[in-house]
Amino acid sequence: MLGMDLSVKEKFNRAFELHTKGDLQEAEGLYNEILSDNPNNSEVLNLLGLVKFVQNDLEDAEKYIQKALFLKPDAYFFENLAKVYLARKNYSQTVVLLEEACNSVACGFEIYFLLGVAYKNIAEYENAEKAYLKAIEFNPSSEKAYYNLASLYLFLNSPQKSVKYFKKCLEINPEDKEVRYFLSLGYFRMKNYDLGMKYFEDRLCRQTAIKCQEVTYPKLFASRPIWRGENISDKVIYTYYEAGFGDMIMFARYIPELQKRCKKIILKTQANLVSLFKENFPYIEVMDLFKDESEIDFDVHIPFLSIPFVLGLGNEQMFIHREGYLKAEPEKVQYYLQNYFDNSKFKIAIKWQGNTYYETDRVINVDAFTPLFDFSNVQVYSAQTFEGSEELSKLSVNHNIIDLASSFKDFSFTAGALTNVDLVICSDTSLAHLAGAMGKPCIVLLPYNYNWRWHMDLSHCDWYDSVKLFKLERNESWNELMIRVCNYLSKSYKLKSFHNNF
Q1: Which of 325, 335, 413, 426 is deepest in the core (most CB within 10 A)?
Q2: What SS3 class is residue 310?
Q3: What pTM was computed for the model?
Q4: What is the pLDDT of residues 222-247, one digit of tens each?
Q5: What pLDDT digit, counting tens, does each position of 271-287 carry?
Q6: Crossing angle (nearest 10°) for helices 109-121 and 143-155
Q7: Cα–Cα distances in Å, from 149 out to 113, 158, 399?
Q8: What sections of 22-74 are H helices per DSSP?
């Protein structure tokens, strides 16, 4: 460093060496010694800020790097301060900082990449796109820039562009399983299952399902291969659950096709689906619980969501059995008819959220359903189970709503109840798949950034003939979307409101 005497240079070199090796405490001590004699040394202030950043002391990191930047408007200092702001989730502040950098110093890849991240987090997606594209101009071989841009396009329902940039990632790193999985979702959104299913085999839940079964049945899995499409007409196949209830219900349509290929199917599904699947697929063995290894025997195995790929089903064949392939047990149908549905009203079952572990975009604020109670001859029922059921009181305090969900022991009971309703209105959740699989009229309320399986053309549902899709527009609320739904109900179902609101 110019301007230092020999001892200061030695301190700096030693501090930087320790910093590089990860010995942060000693490096910090030497940096502070230098600053005690030269408190306006911008390079040391920046490095000390980076030490604090690694130590997760974000407040001090911000303080030191801000001072360095005040003393010297350097692109590297802008980058580091932006990373601190991003770590503190100060996205708007990051945008202001980096736009200043773009106007005051020579910026490169990292500035524009971080600017893209910041813009995406404040929902300024067009500006995020421009920033990522500019970053790629500076570094056309950056996998992380291609990945973030591809993910942005997937989020914005632009799957063609998403596929283009995920493929760029694979040109750089062909074995990146996460990229291959997200590429499959881009293809699915475009309804290209011929290509998508191949990449879908790299999904994380497939690997997790296999690992789980390897632990449960170690000897069997060590000696039994995964089925890859060979002739198994004289063999027993074991297939096991992965992902959520909705995925299992949706892919259950392929069980009859799999049965044509093999001697016998053994299926392990989640406990809540066992009775429903036993009632609907009596010709296969549906396992009740985990069995001892000595009580199960099979020749080949396959994760459940891999079935259509290995069956070799093409684009249109993916949507077989659209008109209802699940039915409820008559005794359960009758139970619900007698105990909950003995009225002449138009019966609507609602549900406002599913599992929020992975995402919360699908959660609908429960008061959005309030307009349904304005219809004069409608009885509303709650099918909301588990998480979210505590929200029911927000409706029941002012409206006549009947709680069905507390009677659901598993999905076979849910099916018994749904048989008696005229319409289901729900978020993108397992209830939508059950209604569709039963051929029950259902309106699914989708967030703006919706799941791949509903495709680009939302005027119809490819998976279920009885399902109609309503999607949030950008900046539209769930309450506003429900008004659109009620207008549709008024016209299509001839429902009348007390106040002629619809």
Answers
A1: 426
A2: helix
A3: 0.90
A4: 999 999 999 999 999 999 999 899 99
A5: 999 999 999 999 999 99
A6: 20
A7: 10, 11, 46
A8: 24-37, 42-54, 58-71
